[in-house]
Structure of Acyl-CoA reductase:
Amino acid sequence: MELQERINAFSKLGAFLDQFSELPYTKNNSTEVNDFFFDGFKHQVKLAQEHNGWFSKDNLSYAFKSWANTLTKSTITTWLDKYNFNSVKPKTVGIIMAGNIPLVGFHDFIAVLISGHKVLVKQSSNDKHLLPYLAKYLEVIEPRFKGFIQFSEDKLQGFDAVIATGSNNTARYFEYYFKDKPSIIRKNRNSVAVLTGNEGKTDLEALSHDIFRYYGLGCRNVSKLFVPKGYNFDAFFQAIYAWHPVIHDSKYANNYDYNKAVYLMSEFDMLENGFLMLKEDSSYASPIATIFYETYDSPSDLKQKLEQNKELIQCVVANGFSEYEVKFGHTQKPGLWDYADNVDTVDFLLKI
């Protein structure tokens, strides 16, 4: 298969996913082999939602829309333009996927196949219904992908390189187990937002999407705020109020109630509005329904602190704070070139 043929196949997959980007799902008769796959994917979506209570209809549709917007010929071509694929010899790359948000390992899956390699996937039990079906769609619209995609529920074997994502504890296991193979090992990371007190309502409303999308379960979700001393949170609470229906989702509500009870019994100081708690804390990983915050004296000191802790941080959301910042409201809108942990996956795959 030539690179352009692989690009064409993934752009067709993007068009297929676009049908599921809004509720109710709308069938597009011009989408290839749709009669065979449209109703089947609706069923897989239903299974995914029933299996994992965090995979709400809204969050699933958001994930599909994000991938549909990304998997176009022009966007994929722009992503791959700087790489040289001429000398790739197909090897088998194992991927161990997380399951915290829908299709969280999809970028690695795409990168391996688009690079011309074979992929061996071990999925999380929390997200096991969607990707195999999309892989089957790929194999039908481009039969030469057959033999290049394999799923395993057992320990990975017969691979030449590996991309593994997990907790800090599992990452230590990965590092030991895969020490003799080329690898990308991803650990826990969280995202932060830097506020100055000069943000307008639009910025803070956009920030609320960075906080609440996927219930805050993603590494690109903002879990901590850095604010100047004396910061008034009133405008922040007003701007995020549109997300208050989240408290009616039972899994989120259970976490809110539990963490609130813990904080109250421990006599921790906190601010809360009925669906989100703010707690001053030096940690980066906050529990569900909680955002940690920390005050800073000067932007330069904060930059130094974040640089020292960069291995813990996925995204820094801000406006005019850093050249590497992400705009408010954009953490869950990464481009294909926005690599997790800033490790260029395609470059890694071209060198194995």
